[in-house]
Amino acid sequence: MSKNDKIELNIDALTSEGSGVGRYDGLAVFVRATVPQDKIIAHIIKRSKNYAVGIVDKIISPSPSRTESDCPYSQKCGGCSFRHMTYEEELKYKKSRVQDAVERIGKLNVKVDEIIGADDLCRYRNKAQYPVEISGGELFAGFYAYKSHRIIPCHDCKLQPSEFETGLKAFEKWVNTENITSYNEETGKGLLRHIYFRKGFETGEIMACAVVNAKDIPNKELLISLLRENVKGLKSVVLNINREKTNVILGTKNITLWGEPYIKDRLLGKTFIISPNSFYQVNHNQCEKLYSKVKKFADFKGNETVVDLYCGVGTIGLTLSDSVKELYGIEIVPDAVENAKINADLNNIKNAQFICADAPKGAEILKKQGVKPNTVILDPPRKGCDRALIDTVVEMSPEKIVYVSCDSATLARDLAVFNEKGFKTEKVSAVDMFPRTPHVEAVALMLKQ
Q: Residue 5 has what pLDDT?
């Protein structure tokens, strides 16, 4: 097999990124936009020693799980990997992916209970960060093509609320009127880097944010006016300053141009403020299901002391606060800790304290205060927990650990380490936080042996 060959291929599996996998003379061939049981002609675009990559040239016979994509951008954009398959097949794959990680990586004999599917497959994201390119005075905003920094213009993404589309049109008028330039990663020059929106799904409040390579922008009054005219529910217009030569989207400094420096949303009856840099789960309805599963796994009796590590702005802990005696949140980001304290006050929660520190230092502070948690909640970033943090949790000696993860591979790895240290995994459940994309959330319960 060589590059540009066309081969007949049966697709029999999916990768973690959602590409189909078939075998040709024993060699794995990866083809995007395919479904298990598809029989295709694949055009080979890359051939290496251990694998090949192809694109669909022709579908000979479609899988029973294949369906027509409802988005004209899905074949080009790097976001949705599953718009061409039934949702039932997507859920089946995602559950099996978590199960495979638990068994193969974690070496644990634990059955994944279920996968909690979504009621809404479209318009569910409460956040969008659009990379931009301005050429010939025209604004191209959208999403990066698969494994590239080439922008696929897309004003109306099926995953985003309709208000974001009208917001992009407002930015477009401002760009054209003021001859705004876009940021160039190679030269470090140009003004506009990203356009960023957030929405509170229960409140309807919208934040519009311009991420710029400058301390100010020309004619901000026009931008504010256009956004106010076009975006229903607009409550906040913010300038985020990012002058670093990096591909990190947000800088650390925010300037409120109009309205409030944050918007509000409600989760499980609690109100939360959301700033530009706040971590907040992107799918409101599925987030409520996820946090309800955390509560069910923890099985609180009302007399527990809970430590919420990686607490962020306090969303998990505060939604559980009515069911426990004491709640302690530990978070290393100062702004997030301040937001968590405000969120506790907003909800008149008196049994919660928040500490700005990394996990080991926060644990040491709690130890000096004589705090002994019954339950520890973990919600780490994609890379999971490092060994030092796991050791810190083990030293706390809780009865239960509830671990929320956005990467089943690192979850399984960490569950294996906890198992070695005396915490047995009792339950694992998957939650589809990101329908039509390859990502899947999971939550696990560990008990001290």
A: 97
Is the C-alpha dihedral spanning 417, 418, 420, 421 positive or negative?
Answer: positive
pLDDT at 131: 94
Report field, pTM of the whole predicted structure over 0.70: yes
DSSP, residue by residue, 263-283:
EEEEETTEEEEE-TT----SB
Kindly tell me the burial class for residue 186, based on how many C-beta atoms sit within 10 Å of its own C-beta (0-12, 13-18, 19 or more): exposed
Phi, psi of 163, deg, nearest 5? -65, -30
The predicted pLDDT at position 445 comes to 98
Spatial contact of 300 and 320, defined as CB atoms under 8 Å apart: yes
Please tell me what DSSP assigns to residue 321: G
pLDDT value of position 75: 82
What pLDDT does residue 146 have?
84
Q: What is the pLDDT of residue 162?
A: 95
Q: Give the number of other Cβ atoms within 10 Å of residue 88's Cβ.
A: 10
- Backbone angle region of 51, left / alpha / beta, with phi > 0 → left and psi within -120 to 50 → alpha: beta
Residue 354, token pair as written in the block: 């928040």
Q: Which residues pair with 116 in a beta bridge?
A: 431
Choice among 77, 80, 209, 406 that is catalytic: 406
- For the chain, residues with pLDDT lower than 50 are none
345-372 as b/e, with b when 16 or more CB fall inside 10 Å? eebebeebbbbbeebeebbeebeeeeee
d(CA 321, CA 337): 16
| Residue 406 annotated among the catalytic residues of the structure | yes
Give the DSSP letter string of 285-302: HHHHHHHHHHHHHHT--S
| Pairing, β 441-448 against β 423-431 | antiparallel
* Residue reference for tokens 């944010």: 209
